[in-house]
Amino acid sequence: MGRMFGTDGVRGVANTELSPELAFQLGRIGAYVLTGKQRGSRFVVGKDTRISGDMLEAAFISGVLSMGVDVLRLGVISTPGVAYLTRHLRADAGVMISASHNPVEDNGIKFFAGDGFKLPDSVEDEIERILNNGQDKLPRPVGATIGRLYDEPASTAYEKFLVGTIRNHFDGLHVVLDCANGAASKLAPSVFRERGARVTELNSRPDGVNINVGCGSTHPHVVQRAVLETGADVGLAFDGDADRLIAIDSTGQVVDGDYIMAICASAMHQRGELKNDTVVATVMSNLGFVRAMEEKGIRVEQTAVGDRYVMEAMRRGNHVLGGEQSGHIIFLNQTTTGDGILTALQLVNIMVDSRKPLSELRKVMQRYPQILENVRVQDKTAWKINEAVQEAVRRAEEELGSAGRILVRESGTEPIVRVMAEGPEERALQKCVDSVVQVIREEFTA
Fold first, then answer.
1. Which of 56, 63, 317, 435 is 20 to 30 A off residue 142, Cα-Cα?
2. Does residue 428 belong to any structural domain of this protein?
3. Is residue 371 helix, strand or coil?
4. Do residue 38 and residue 107 come from a single domain?
5. Across 57-61, 282-286, 368-372, which has the greatest mean pLDDT?
6. Exposure string (b/e) for 196-211, b if CB count within 10 Å is 16 or more?
7. Do 41 and 122 fall into the same domain?
8. Residue 37: per-residue pLDDT
């Protein structure tokens, strides 16, 4: 049996893999492990807009209350909002019920420690150990010792924090926001309007089932079209829980996480704010990003894919900027997790500071061609020990030579194997990816 906690909490199809029974158990065990069994302890709990959030929220909160721990219910809010408010409200732990960019049938439960950071593996393993063997030993408070539930309208505090991270007003700028019918739907337009921007909203009317459907950061063509049609200065697309950002410049070009990191790292380096002259990225970051940073005297430290690994490297090395090509960007001098709205504010703030459009700022790097294909499988780790797949990868590496690279890895959140190739010749890249994908499909999807 594989580990229950993935790179981003516990996820699964809501009401089957991630059942209310499991949510209740995670609430009980999480409260036991994370509060030190102290009276007066409390959790903060938030959720995105998907329909199963109500069910899982009720079940999880019931589990926490059954352990004598109070709950501050935040309602719909972004994942980074939960992380911030966990610290701000001095809670013992925070929990976000969300499956981020995944489809509506999925959901997840993500824990934050009292300092706003994700739990270390050892704590997640302890929760899982008790879940598998030891629930019957947990206490059962009665009477006045059962926890209390409080509704906490704390989004105003989070919005004030976001606005306080920048110094400029955005008067005269026209911004298109694609909120993915998710957690950013009210918050992002409010923040940008408060800063003086003219805002065009897209996909900001969640109905419980339209989260991430043909919109948001995984469908940048939507905001791209709106930017070109309206003549906006910039487009900003978030995912369902608003911890990712993909931008669009005024010419319609996509500005992904690599470009955003390059722009922000260069600006921070110039201001003397980039500690250790280092930015942390994953192995999926484009070679063009790495080369561009090297030319500016900025070191790129690369990690495994997953924002938790980026964060671990940042904390270990005392670095302040890191992220992923997918749009998870972490400003560790300001917050404890990737935050799409905060990143959007920083990016537009640089536009105002530099008096340059995003189309000019993105020239800080030149992107190498990169081909990525996903293969849905039953066992996403089996390729590692499959000789046919390993041989296909070796042949692809030989064909690309030193000018390029091929990378095969499993998704941290879905039953998917990702095959990526990068280098100067796109035709050669496609050939290599196709050859590896074909073998994976033959071996595992028949």
1. 56
2. yes
3. strand
4. yes
5. 57-61
6. ebbbbbbbbebeeebb
7. yes
8. 64
